[in-house]
Each structure stands twice: as structure tokens, then as C-alpha cells.
């Protein structure tokens, strides 16, 4: 656990970067610092590994104040990943990854073996091992940056906008890879971003910062979306937060109608021999021999967000549920869905006893 | 010409070895002195411009004047080779301070910060991160300084200590072309050779500068 105990940072020029921050980052979880530019996210992050020293207050890792530890030794136990990766241009990829190990006295061979193993883990080819950073794409460099931070197997990782300098498609890949790795490794991670979507996607907990280094809210992504503490958070989290918050709830509790019920509206759900949906036919839609595509199905465990999206985008306003074999088992019309979402909202608004 | 070389083999070899010594000792001394000064100029930003102005000024002093002033300052005999070594060291420092400072300034701050964040201590970081990354710029400067020194040594012949330059003065006195030609050829060969050695060292020490980047 990383504890911020009343931490403030005032720079010599008088800028208040962080103001009386109290925060606990749970062990083995990803805590995201998010907020507009200049609100003190990076400064807060860099106080954890003493790249910046607080003006007042204290930061503790598992109860031990960081200021009681030798700077260099502390940092070797904390992985650090930044935008543009910050790789050493004069070192090969394996040498880059092995940096901290070499600093702690691990032999060249052993460090290389670990590095090559990590290269695979972050989804890179071993053939990159002896290349130099300039020979890699931005996305590949960023993966190497993550591998370098992981090499000494530190329990704590600090990541400052690690995925913001790559294009959106590469970023999605990196985020997915990162979540998969974290599920395996369970590091205590502080992750800075100014992208609220990234915060909600990656964070177990999210700390929303606002100008002047104030903490506006600290909570799970779902709490942020459903119960923003104030207008600033509500605004920052964005207009479609209601829709986004649906991604945290399973669709399993929805009341689903039978497949047969669709015929009442005149539409026909065309199924193949195995009972799998092929598409829609009926008046104004097409012949049963050439149905129009249904655009997607959902199954047990999918989120309310997916079901809502399917119902809205379906050519007939109906989302189709299938079983594990892909056979249609039920349908839900968007009218029914909206009614059920409304009931859900009312239930939530009632005070829980 | 061949006859001249054969007859004066010892004189020529002595001139050549003195030339090498007079040119290269200042390079080594100058590099060793310029390194910490250049480092300070980068570490303490306010020193950068004053230091660069001073070194620019030193570099603009005519070499013959410097050769003549130095005995007065450090108390050596006018014919001592030390005068040449000191003067050329001054030039080398003046040239290399700028090169070292610019080389170190070319190191991306993100990279040095990353190094600190991984747990590098200051001195080790300098030798393992900043210095190697600055090396291509520094070695380019070293090539210039080396070639310049090799040609400047000859000027020393005017005050009696000049390596191969002594062959020029002798040729002039005797109104005889051979020693002058031999002096020029050897001086040029020496410069080309030293330059080549530095290029080879650079290729060996900075392999990352030769890979093709993708962009
Ligand atoms: N070394 C410094 N000296 C003076 N002021 C600084 C320094 N570093 C940061 N600041 C100021 O402190 C405030 C917080 O900076 P910080 O870098 O922590 O913001 P941030 O939330 O990471 O912003 P961004 O999203 O733009 O990276 C800003 O106003 C910044 O200008
Ligand atoms: Mg920042």
C-alpha cells in the first residue's frame, strides 16, 4: 500500500502543484491519477520515488516513509514508465531492459535471459533483442519501456502517461496487454493519464485531480460515473457517463423475451440449421433467403452497455441473446430495455438499508 | 628527394616523433581538462555563456603570439617544448569545452531523468549514460582539434621547437625544396592517420549511430 499523508508540494517559484493530498493506493491494484493538465498528477507520482521531494507531509510504502530510504535503492525497487518510453539510445533493447538488474549487480548473462523472457511477455519478438531503440516503432518502444520497468520485478510501478504518445489503435493494444500482464503480476501501480476513458478502463481505483493540486474525488470507476462527488467530476467524467457506467453491470438480470415473441412485430429472426441467428427478414427488411445482418449478439456475462448498444444499433431495435454454442435463446426489444434501465435507476436512487 | 630522405633519416624521424608528441600530448591533456569544465558549464547553466565566451577568446589569440607569451607567464625558457604543449593545450581546451558542453546538452533530459528514476547515482549516470550518448558530438570535435594541433605544431618552428616544422625552416634557410616537401607530406599523412584512428574508434564505440532508424 502506498499512503499519501497530507502531502503538499510548492515549487520554489510559488506554484502549488499538490495541496494536502491524502490518498491510499491499495496493494496489487491499479490506481489511476487523472485530471486536466497541470493539476499535479506527475508531481504526485514523482514524489513516490523521490524524484520530487514534498514540501510537507509524508509518503509511505507499506508503512515505511520513503524519505528514510536511500534514493537510488528505493528507485531500483520501483518500476518507472514514461511517455515516449525514455529508452537509452546507446543501448540495445535487451541492455535497456536489463538496466536495473545490472545496477543491482546481476550478471550480464542472467540479465539478458530475463530480458528476453520479458520481451516475449510484453508481446515483442525476440528478434528485436539486439536492435537499438531508433529501430523500433513508438508502440514497440513503449512495450520495451514497460518491460524495462518490470525487469527487476519491483512490487511497485509508476507509469506517467505511458500510452499517450501512440496512435489510438496501438494504444488499445497496449492497454489490453497491460491489463493481461497486471492480472498475472498483481503489481501495486500508480498510473497517470489525462484521458478519463483510459482511467475508467484501466483503474481499479481512480483519483480525480483538479487545478491547484486538489483531489476532487477518489473512488472506483463505477462510483465516479454513478455518483460524481461534485460538478467538476461530473463534468470531467463527461456527458455520456450514464451510458459508460452501464459497462460495469452485467446484463444477466435483464428480463429476456422468447425468440418466438419477435413475430408479433412482423419481423422474422432467420436462424440456420443449428439455431444460430443469421439476420432479420420481414416487411421492409428483406427476404428470408437474403436477410439483413443482425449486427451482433450477446451472451451470459456481457455488460448492459453491450446489450444497449446492440438494441440501439439493431435494424429492428432488438438485441439477440445466444448460448455458448451461438444458438439464439432470447431477445430484448429496446423499449423493454429502456423500461428496465429506468427501473434499475429508481432502485439505485432508493437509499440502501 | 630519396637521397635527401636516406641521408637525413635520423633528423626526419626525430622531427616526426617530436611532432607527434607536441600535437598529441595537448590533445590528451586538453580533453581531460575540457571534460569537467564542459560538464560544469552544463550542470550550472549560468556558467555556459561565460565559459564559452572565454574559450572563444582564447581560441582567437594568434598561435605565434601565444607561443611567445607563455614563457613570460609560466617562466619556462623560450626554447622549451613545454611552451608549445601548454599553448596547444589551451587551444584544445578552448575548442573542446564547447564541444563537450554541446555534446552533453544534446542528451535528452527525458533519458537522464529515466536513468535517475531507475536508480542511477549521479557519477555512474554521467559515465554510463550522458558521456556515451554525447560521444559522437565529442569525437567529431576531437577530430577537428587533432587536425588543427597537428598543423599548428609547425608554427613552433619559428621559435625553434616545431617538429616537422623544423624541416620547413631548414628548407627555407638552405633554399632547398626537399625538406619542405617531406615535411608537408609527413604532416598531412600524420593528420589523415590520426583522423582515421578517431573515426575507427568512433565506429567501435558508438555502434548505435550507424543503425538505420525507422520513421
Ligand atoms: N520543476 C517545477 N518548477 C516549477 N513548477 C513546476 C515544476 N514542475 C511542475 N510545475 C508546475 O506544477 C504544476 C503541476 O505540474 P504537474 O507536472 O504535476 O502536472 P500534471 O498534472 O502532470 O500535468 P500534465 O497533464 O500536463 O502532465 C504545474 O502548474 C506545473 O507548471
Ligand atoms: Mg504530467
Tell me what you see in this structure.
The complex is a heterodimer of chains A (353) and B (215). With 353 residues, chain A is an alpha/beta fold. Helix content of chain A is 34%, strand content 24%. Chain A has 13 helices and 16 strands. In chain A, helix 5 (108-121) packs across helix 6. The two termini of chain A are 31 Å apart. With 215 residues, chain B is an all-alpha fold. Chain B has a single domain, classed as Orthogonal Bundle (MetI-like fold). Chain B has 9 helices and no strands. Chain B has helices at residues 2-7, 9-43, 45-59, 63-74, 81-105, 109-118, 122-153, 165-174, 177-205. Chain B is elongated. Chain B starts with a helix and ends in a 10-residue tail after the last helix. The A-B interface holds A 49, 51, 72-76, 80, 82, 84, 86-91, 99-100, 103-104, 131-132, 134-137, 148, 158 and B 108, 110-111, 113-121, 129, 132-133, 206-208, 211-214. Magnesium ion binds next to helix 1 of chain A. Chain A: GO terms for molecular function: ABC-type quaternary ammonium compound transporting activity; ATP binding; ATP hydrolysis activity. Chain A: Keywords: ATP-binding, Nucleotide-binding, Transport. Chain A: Belongs to the ABC transporter superfamily. Chain A: It comes from Labedella phragmitis. Chain A: This is ABC-type quaternary amine transporter.
Quick summary:
By secondary structure, chain A is α/β, with parallel strands linked by helices. In chain A, 34% of the residues lie in helices and 24% in strands. Chain A has two domains: 2-247, Rossmann fold, CATH 3.40.50.300; 251-346, CBS-domain, CATH 3.10.580.10.
